[in-house]
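chain below, 479 aa
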Amino acid sequence: MTDTARRPVDSRWLALVVLCAGMLMIVLDQTIVNVALPAIQADLGFTQGGLAWIVNAYLIAFGGLLLLAGRLGDLIGHKRVFVLGLVVFTVASLLCGLSTTPEMLIGARFVQGVGGALSTAVTLGMIVKMFPQPKEQAKAIGVFSFVAAAGASIGLLLGGVLTQGLNWHWIFFVNVPIGVAAVVLASRLIRTEAGIGLGEGADILGAVLVTGAVMLGVYTIVQAGPDARTLVLGAVAVALLVGFVVRQAKAANPLLPLRVFRSRNVAGANAVQVLMVAGMFGMFFLGTLYMQFVLDYDALRIGLAFLPVAVSIGTLSVGFSARLNARFGERNVLVLGLVLVFVGLLLFVRAPVDGTYLEHLLPVMLPLGIGVGLSFPALMTLAMSGATPDDAGLASGLVNTTAQVGGALGLAILATTSTSRTATLLAEGVPTAQALTSGFHLAFGISAGLVALALVVAVTVVRPIAVTATDAPRPMAFH
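prediction:
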């Protein structure tokens, strides 16, 4: 295949569509499962505790392997890792749909997480290398951000439609034709790169340490409880992480060169991502429960309730955000977006037991959608602004890892505090709907607090990206 620079520009945008199609399939899968959980439980005989592992098995594999997968893309070629991930994810989706026992489904979900990590980790790095010019890159990242951010909302709606219209098996079967098409088109449209070679960065010990640390850390978070076992697992995860940092400081070819954190924007953007996603992920999960158990919405109605978020994100991410970033700078747009997300979460705190959509939910969804639509494209650009071409996959894997860890952390904190508050009120004789709503209010307030911390980091740490010429490529340097 000819070099990207000699091919028609349109072919790069076709390649972007393929990348985003693969990304959408994986992002949808993270939320599409939620609305089908009751049907899966009834069909396969899951226990209440076992049901959570349909989500946790995927999350542990996905979050634990992202950083390693990103670096692997730098070493052997981003396209190879992307296509491999699509193949693994597609085969695992078929196995999920064919599952007849809880054990088979949980195992297939873990393999899905492996495939999702391989493909997702390198996608953003491929986009940055494919579109080095600032204007094109901003537009391409806007499209990617729309897929990544709006996919969660679309997944809730699609999950409701498939589960109620067909059955839960189809939330997995739908991935198979999409995955096959994405593999074929990726092979044809995306340029093959050799990578820098395994000898340039095959830090096996570092890979084992960080993968173990993240997997065990995510497992500890999702299984958190007030017991000694949680403390021991958490301590082991921290020890592995410390060992990884020490290893990276001494290794000749480190998996994660510590120089990446010399860039204030890389460090700051990833910190913002952890805090923002922690607040947003828990909010979407608990907001779904609020609509289901307090307002008595069914799966399809819940998906429709979140539709304004997806529409707002789509409208802004694909067009307006790129122009706003170019006009006012990514940092300023990020700050504005975080302010709107914060406002939306505060409004959610006032949602009552007998809330109505127009009065109490729509005013929440609009600032959330607009805020996320502004924030994510700016955040992705800032997170990748310090990446060298050889480290693009690593930086992409890092920003996706912080998102997954932030999501797991936020869900654990918000679900635990909400449940604890509800249980306390129920013990005091408070009616169930009121006790649930009070627990959700506490969680939404904490979500707003996490986003407020993200806003502080964005203001104090992140710096505007310096561009010397309108059409000059983004500066890439954290050497």
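The two ends are 31 Å apart (CA to CA). The chain has two domains: 8-192+255-460, 202-254.
thats it, cya
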